[in-house]
Every structure is written in structure tokens, then in C-alpha cells.
Amino acid sequence: MKAHDGMYIDGAWRPAAGPDVIEVVNPADEQVIATVPAGTVEDVDAAVRAARAALPSWAATPPAERAARLAALRDVLVARQDEIAETVTAELGSPPKLSQAVHAGVPIAVTGSYAELAATYAFEEKTGNSTVLHEPVGVVGAITPWNYPLHQIVAKTAPALAAGCTVVVKPAEDTPLVARLFAQAVHEAGIPAGVFNLVTGLGPVAGQALAEHPGVDLLSFTGSTAVGRRIGAIATGMVKKVALELGGKSANVILPGADLARAVNVGVANVMSNSGQTCSAWTRMLVHHDSYDEAVELAAAAAAKYGDRIGPLVNAAQRERVRGYIEKGVAEGARLVAGGPDSPHEKGYHVSPTVFADVTPEMTIAQEEIFGPVLSILRYADEEDALRIANGTVYGLAGAVWAGDEAEAVAFARRMETGQVDINGGRFNPLAPFGGYKQSGVGRELGAHGLTEYLQTKSLQF
């Protein structure tokens, strides 16, 4: 076990204000692998003060220079890609291939995209007799989750730095080690002291202190809708700008005439990726009644192949939460066709890849975010029925539509109340805006839309 000391504040590792530590557990074998300091209100205050002190200089730095620093950061992340992947595997339990390709690879791509945007974005524009300025909003408080620990830090930090903001990050307590690696990468990239700061700690202490700090101008939070409501209430009460990326219960709609086998197999893979710990996962598969039985058979067979291919859930509490949902699904009358609440391993926080059939829209497992490898398959009568079911939750983060005719799929997707829809297996695009409708959040991440979240507008009239 390795004991990590200090917080990254004002360009250096400083001793924590308090003696308490957080134990980091490997969810695959349940062993403590490291400790990090449990940040206090004093640590958060020091980090915010450092960010405020660094703000004028960084905001005044020409965009081309900010772009160069982000490009240097991307290069450091590339050089450390293997170390990043190994760290995420150790603290999250992610399989090595997923850690390498997604947990390490996607943040590199996102950082590079903001290096390019910082150099090309129109921070000034003319409209009539006015010059419109797009200026940094100020100090950003970023509270990030454990499911994609580096990606979520980068998705907030990279656009904030490109915009000219300074940042204080409070990472999830389950996965703080890759956050520390990122702070080291920031330092190696030559980003000035105070521009990026890191405070590890518990949500009710360090997270709340960051949210309530009067020196923070914008709160960016990714996590559960319940916590997002509290963050939003704090921001509203203090008249802060807020960006919230919250829960999801996304629909994978398979229309008649679609390639059923491909749609089902890709849909199952989407749900099982990252052990189901993905807010945008297509956890509701909607199938026309004529193809329903075949789809159920295909999904059950596909899920069975993932028994040894997915990692554990992040901690014991998450495992019990997912098991509870599986048991509730059975109790409410859904038919278990793959998996179940029992663990396939003697050690680790594992849950079997699980598929439910005969799920109806009002069931708990069709309405609430489970955040585990659990797929619900629902039947529909016609396209209007499918649309009603797809839009029939409080969430609207992502989704998918499959059809033999792409135009038909697009027409259906246009009527879905959700922030992002993949058409016939469309690929992930790091430049496309990501964010939700309804209770899935406020604001957007990634690409130019993600950059604008960290800007405020001023007009000069001539």
C-alpha cells in the first residue's frame, strides 16, 4: 500500500490541513492499495485562493499560448498513457483493454481537441456596431465522478483552461489516484501555478466546501441527479453559473426492418461496457412485438459472453445497490433471462451480466438508473408506442435508433427527448456536444459547446 501525501495547490504538492486519509480499494480483490489525504475546508479555501490569484494572468494569456500549454498537456498524457491505464484498472477495476482505449485514450483526444479549439475559437466577433467579447467566467469548481475518472476531469478542465479560467478539482474519493497523475501531468506541461488545483476528499466535506465557496464562479458537477439537485440549489442561491451532467435511462430503439442481430449485440455491448457504470448506457432496449422473442434470445446469448470480460463494480455499496435493483426486477414480475444478483467471482465487487425480458414501462428497473450491467428489454406495438416509452422517464441523456432506412431512424431520433442519439451504431465523436434533457442535466460538455460553458459575454458598442 502506498501513502500519497499532499494536495496540488498553486503549482506544488502541499501538506494537507488535516490528518485524515481516504483508503483506495482495488474493487477486483477488495485490497487497500493506497491512501490519499481527506481534504478539509481549509484545503479547499487554499486551492480557491490560489486559483483566484492566478486568474488575471491566465485569462490575459493569448489563446494561442493557452493552446500550446494544452497541446503540451496532451503530449504528457500520451507519454503516460500506460501508467494512466494501469492506475484506472487498479482503482476502478476496469479491464486493461478498456482502460487503455477509453479511460486513457479518450482524455488524450479531448485534450487535443481543446488545444485546437483554443487556437481557432472566435473569442471576439462583430455584430452591427458592437464587438462581442467571449471572456472566461472565472474560477471553476469541478466535482467529478468515479466511473470515468480521468475523462470527466479532462472534459471540465480542458475547456476551462482553453477559455482562460482557472480550476479547482475535487475528484471522487473512490478514484483519486488518476487525478493525482493528471495533476503531475499539468505540472510537467508547464501550466502556470494556480491555474489547476487538486483537492482530494469526501463529498460532504471537500465537495460541499468547494460548492459553497464564494470565490468559485462556476460549478461543474457530474454525478447522480439527487446530488446534482443539491449542487444546483447551492449555485442558484449564490447566483453562480452551473453545469450539471447527471443520470440517464437511455432507450435503444430497434425499429422494424433494422439489422436485429447487430442492433441487439451492439446494444448489449453498450450496456456491459465499464460494467454498466455509464450514465449514457442504453439500458432500455425497445423491440417491436414481432421481433421481441428473437431479440430476447439474442440478448441473453450475447450477455452470457461477458461473464469474464467485464470488471467489478467500484465498491461494495454499488454492488449491493445493483443487486437490489435486480431483486426488485424479479419481484415486480420481470423475467430474468441472463445473470442475476449472485456474483460470478469469490472476490471483488462483481455482478453477473444481467438481462430482463417482459419489462413494462412502469417497472422500477425501467424507470430508475441502476448503474450496473443490467439490461431491460421492453416490447412496443408501433412507432408511436415506442416513442411514448422512449420518452417516458425523467431522464434524457442519450439513446440509439436502428432502422433499415437511415432517414426513418433520423426522423424518429428527432422526436426523442434526449441530448444525444446514435443512428445505426454511430461512432463516438469527441467534438459533439454531450449533455441531457430533463433531469439528465444542464449545459453541455465536449467540443465548442463545451467551451462556451466556461465563457461569459460582453458587448462593446461603437
From TrEMBL:
**Record keywords, A-Z:** Oxidoreductase
- SUPFAM superfamilies in the cross-refs: ALDH-like
* Listed InterPro entries: Ald_DH/histidinol_DH, Ald_DH_C, Ald_DH_CS_GLU, Ald_DH_N, Aldehyde_DH_dom
PROSITE patterns given in the database record: ALDEHYDE_DEHYDR_GLU
- Tell me which residues make up the Aldehyde dehydrogenase domain: 13-459
Q: In which family does this protein belong, per the annotation?
A: Belongs to the aldehyde dehydrogenase family.
Q: What is this protein called?
A: Aldehyde dehydrogenase family protein
Q: Per the UniProt entry, what species is this protein from, by scientific name?
A: Streptomyces atrovirens
